[in-house]
Amino acid sequence: MFVFLPLFSNLALAAELFSVPEMTCEPCETEIKERLKLQSTISIVGSSYQETWICLDGEYDSEQLKEFMGDVGYTFLPQEGECPVEQKHLWADFEEEAKGNPKLDFQIVSTGERFKMKRELSKGKFTVFDFGADWCGICHSTAKQLQDLMGERDDLAVRAIHLPGNEDASFAHPVVFQYLYEAPGLPWFVLYGPDKKKLYEGHSYDDLLSVLTGDQP
């Protein structure tokens, strides 16, 4: 029997709502967002300075977050209930951006169904297959890093595999049993070179980047 063991056991499985009483102006909201961006494992789902709330997703310790923001004068108070915004899926914004920019070689090739990797390779480019889920905080961080990397390189294509649902539902999709039977958790990357040979498979974005840049030992 296949048992999928999440690699990051302390991830927030749902976006968390905070009240921030001091966030009463647009510059305040901008300052808070810029400070939060210093933490690569935090994803900002939404915010409103008019109603003094912010909604976060990702991998973080709530007490450390309170201290981190308290150092610059902002109080983060956890609230019960769901975030008052519609939460987009992991790749939603970039998918829209790519539709309007033909230079960005990006596609979502699976939302849980089986597919054939070799058919999705981009001719003459490195092709990264990125397996991720909305509840996976680190997946949001690595997805953003891949997006930035695509903006810097025209020899890179990204094929996203989005695993919808909560943790249990994500791991029940057919594509998990097709490609992730040896994966200890998410995110999971598979990299093919321009010659269509597999160059890397694993969970480390740093290792993936090292192979792409030729810096691996």
Overview of this protein structure:
The chain has helices at residues 26-36, 62-70, 92-99, 137-152, 167-170, 174-179, 205-213, and strands spanning 16-19, 42-48, 53-58, 77-79, 105-110, 126-132, 156-162, 188-192, 198-202. The protein is an alpha+beta fold. The chain has two domains: 16-79, 2-Layer Sandwich (Alpha-Beta Plaits), CATH 3.30.70.100; 92-213, Glutaredoxin (3-Layer(aba) Sandwich). Strand 8 (188-192) and strand 9 (198-202) form a beta hairpin. The longest helix is centred in the middle third of the chain and has 16 residues, at 137-152. Strands 5-7-6-8-9 form a five-stranded mixed beta sheet, covered by helices on one side. A four-stranded antiparallel beta sheet has the order 2-3-1-4. The protein contains seven helices and nine strands.
Which descriptors apply to this entry?
Alpha-Beta Plaits; 23% strand; Glutaredoxin; 217 residues; five-stranded mixed β-sheet; four-stranded antiparallel β-sheet; 7 helices; 29% helix; alpha+beta
Topology overview:
Blueprint: E1 16-19, H1 26-36, E2 42-48, E3 53-58, H2 62-70, E4 77-79, H3 92-99, E5 105-110, E6 126-132, H4 137-152, E7 156-162, H5 167-170, H6 174-179, E8 188-192, E9 198-202, H7 205-213
Parallel strand pairs: 5-7, 6-7
Antiparallel strand pairs: 1-3, 1-4, 2-3, 6-8, 8-9
